[in-house]
Amino acid sequence: MNQREQFSTRLGFILATAGSAIGLGAIWKFPYVAGQNGGGAFLFIFIVFTFILALPLMMAEFAIGRTGGEDAVTSFKKIAPNTKWHWVAILGMITCFILLSFYSVIGGWVITYLGKAMTGSLNGLHANEYASVFEQTIANPWISLGVQLIFILITILVVAKGVQGGIEKAAKIMMPALAILFIILVIRALTLDGAGKGLAFLFQPDFSKLTSKAVLDAMGQSFFTLSIGVSVMITYSSYLPRTENLPRSAVSIVSMNIMIVLLAGLAIFPAVFSFGLAPDAGPVLLFHVLPTIFSQLPLGMFFFTAFLIVFLFAALTSAFSMLEIIVSVLSKGDSMKRRKYAWIIGIAIFIFGIPSSLSYGVLSDITIFDKSFFDLADYAVSNILMPLGALMMAIFVSWKMKKSVLFEQLSSGSNISRGIFTSWYYLLRYVAPVLIFAVMLDVLGVWDKIL
């Protein structure tokens, strides 16, 4: 029997797990969602829900991974034998497969822009030209498919090397580099004339502008940015020794995610307000607005290149976890099978993602339920599969697993008190399902007809 790999250090686990969480949600999606929902008030609500909703759910997944000590599917089978609960992990595998299929498309766009920034192709353009450059780039099928494949190949090569030699080693390089580059960007942004308006927008909450829709968006964002509900945390925590302090690790990861969210806001909003642009630009913020801003700064393309490297590192560390979930289930700890399945599943994901990659070009006229292939995949993952997975995790841990087992797992290697444990348990059992259900109604558009 093959001995199961483990993270070599607690730092390696935290960086890898934080890397899984810190990706599109934290660096790309949060700034424009916060911009659309009033800034500071949204940030405050997001942080509150991160600690009362996302943190308990992360600890729940950690408890499953620690108890099972195997891949996500096997862990569910060991904890609840002769039941169908392992389908929650299979749902997570399916979610990660679909998610990586269109996530790699965006990762490819970042690679494309990184290449353009490094070769000077973005220099000297007028503000209105950046939008057309982006549209022409994503409409070119060969460019879109080529860079998507590059992104997938990098992901495959790292995951094929295993937990310590691949994922942990990459995280130890990429995450510190991400933090350092972000700090440099923040320092530059804060030196701009008018940066104070951006700081006020981010840190002076105006709760009079906070709508019920913004509260629900903040609630959903709190667990979307932490990869909750897709078995990522189950898989990574299963690679930990029994002596690891799970609550402390969970708090460290959540805190690191919030720190990156704040750095993203500090890097973007002062620059946006300094140049008199709208903070609610939406998803095009990264590819339209930021190039416009950086092009007008001394050494602007240098800083924009640094931002793209940050974003690429964040995207890759998240991609590693998505592929790892599937590969860990199929390989069962066998290093030879790991390499084989990393390539098989990685290429299958690339093929499955081809329609999403071509959604803005040759397949732009084809829609399903009035959505492009890309938008349909995004909608299915963000609005249905992830919330459903999170809901089932909360129900399984708080209603199916024994309370004594949960306390044993969370107190192993820690000094968690009965009071803190009980608070976590009841948040997970009663509060989290209600909040997740509210999010599901929100993303499905039900609240729009009610509120």
Can you describe what's shown?
The structure is a single chain. This protein is mostly helical and 451 residues long. The chain has a single domain (10-450), classed as Up-down Bundle (Amino acid/polyamine transporter I), CATH 1.20.1740. The chain is built from 19 helices and no strands. The chain has helices at residues 10-21, 24-36, 40-68, 72-79, 87-119, 129-139, 141-160, 163-190, 195-203, 212-224, 232-237, 246-274, 289-295, 300-331, 335-357, 373-400, 403-411, 418-443, 446-450. Helix 14 packs across helix 15 (335-357). The longest helix has 33 residues, at 87-119. It starts with 9 loop residues before the first helix and ends with a helix. 52% of the residues are buried. The model has no long low-confidence stretch (mean pLDDT 82). Its main location: membrane. It is found in: Membrane. Keywords: Membrane, Symport, Transmembrane, Transmembrane helix, Transport.
